[in-house]
Amino acid sequence: MNKNDIFIIHGTDYKDMTIRLLHEAGLAEEIGDREKHIALKPNLLGTMRPEDGATTHPELVCGVIEYLQFHGFRHLSIMESSWVGERTSRSFAALGYTDISEKYGVPLIDLQKDEAVSCNTAGMELHVCRKALETDFLINMPVVKGHCQTLVTCALKNNKGLIPNSEKRRFHTMGLLKPIAHLSTVVRNDFILVDNICGDLDFEEGGNPVYMNRIWAAKDPVLCDAFVCDCLGIPVDEVSYIRMAERLGTGCADTSKAHLVFLNESTDTEYVEITGRRNSSPLPRRVQKLAGYTAPKDSCSACYGSLIHALNRLNEGGKLRPGLPPVCIGQGYQGQAGEIGVGTCTSCFSKSLKGCPPKAIDIVTFLEENWIQKRKN
Ligand code: SF4
Predict the structure, then answer these.
(1) Residue 113 C-alpha to ligand 1 middle, in angstroms?
(2) 3-state SS class at 351
């Protein structure tokens, strides 16, 4: 895998998708020596469930372990330090990681109990957990989410789970953004496996999950987070720690240089099933409000999730209002005429945005120009 590659797989069998993605990305060759100590770093900020949009799905961790053990890697561990106010041991137990550890014989490392090491991170002194620094290869496993302070959270911010609690508190006194960028200059991010299954609209702790049913693999945490901005409809320049990390030499924030490799198409229509039309569990309230501006017909999860994120951006900008015609989306519109639609399936509409699926950042621009502006005139 090259540093500018981002491999993407869609679906709902998360463990099998993970194994296929790692195979296609050539992770075993990437790591090389079978004697290396490999750490998996999920995002377990607390005991909140993955299906609520907060934490890494354990199926991804199982997939990574099975792949690595199949390829002869024996020295694996799962390391994490939950957020201040929660014990990592409780998160491990509540989210099934204690069972995973026993099943596969992979130890859990509670970094809240680890020793801190002082590091010079490109001119800023920060304390980092010793075991995180001593590992030979680190697989960062963040969740794509919106965030109330930093706007997005993914690879770069997930590294905050590699520092002691005292340092997490200090990060907030330093404004959070700058130390996140500096931390990226010393912690390992050898491989990034991104959980883009159902991260929250804009809260780290979940509650409003948006189903995308995707997993990605990347090597550059800066490029990865810049691509997250595209997927959530946020201009990368509004997330200052990404640009700072780029200036510090961690990676490249220019997504036009990313080489996207889609391993399959987004064809599942699980979003509709998961969020209520068939199994009657209601949409989360905020997602439901945004869904009121849409008219989905057999829409794929990744497509519909991108539209929901784009509508969330427009809503935050005060641009949504009653009376706008619904935005059509989904395979059910193929070959049909209509007013406004998103995704290649609506290409016969008077106004349609191409893409299969389109990115939220492009949907925002398209809807501003063809939906909101048009109605004003
Ligand atoms: S354009 Fe159509 S086929 Fe493509 S992701 Fe959207 S709904 Fe699915």
Answers:
(1) 46
(2) strand
Whole-angstrom distance, CA of residue 4 vs CA of residue 257: 7
Measuring CA to CA, which residue among 258, 147, 189 is closest to residue 40?
A: 189
Bridge partners of residue 5, in order along the sequence:
259
In the chain, % of residues over pLDDT 90: 84
Kindly give the distance from the C-alpha atom of residue 222 to the centroid of ligand 1, in angstroms, as a whole number. Answer: 28
> Does one domain contain both 280 and 251?
no
Q: Average pLDDT of the chain?
A: 93
61-82 pLDDT, tens digit each: 999 999 999 999 999 999 999 9
Number of domains in the chain: 2
Q: Show which of 262, 292, 312 is a domain's final residue.
A: 262
Same domain, 253 and 290: no
Average pLDDT over residues 47-52: 93
pTM: 0.93
- Which pLDDT belongs to residue 147? 80
Residues 356 and 214 in one domain: no
Residues 85 and 221 in one domain: yes
Q: Is the CB of 345 under 6 A from ligand 1?
A: yes
Domain match, 243 and 100 both: yes
296 lines ligand 1 (CB under 6 A): no
**Atom nearest to 334 CA in ligand 1:** 2
Query: How far, in Å, is the centroid of ligand 1 from the Cα of 264?
Result: 12
Would you say the CB of residue 266 lies under 6 angstroms from ligand 1?
A: yes
Give yes or no: residues 39 and 156 share one domain. yes
Pocket lining: 344 vs ligand 1, CB cutoff 6 Å: yes
Q: What long-range pairs does 167-171 form, CB within 8 A, spacing at least 24?
A: 167/116, 167/126, 167/127, 167/128, 168/81, 168/83, 168/84, 169/84
Which band of pLDDT confidence, cut at 50, 70 and 90, is reported for residue 279? very low
Is residue 213 lining ligand 1, measured as CB closer than 6 Å?
Answer: no
* From 266, 306, 362, mutation site for ligand 1 pocket: most ligand atoms within 8 A of C-beta: 266
Expressed in angstroms, the distance from the first to the final Cα of the chain is 49
DSSP code of 209? Answer: B
Q: Is 328 in the pocket of ligand 1 (CB under 6 A)?
A: no
pLDDT score of 273 more than 60:
no
Rounded to whole angstroms, the Cα distance separating 132 from 142 reads: 16
In terms of residue numbers, what domain contains 370?
270-376
Q: Give the pLDDT confidence of 159-218 residue by residue, as tens digits.
A: 999 999 999 999 989 999 999 999 999 999 999 999 999 999 888 888 889 989 999 999
Does any ligand 1 atom lie closer than 6 A to the CB of residue 356?
Answer: yes
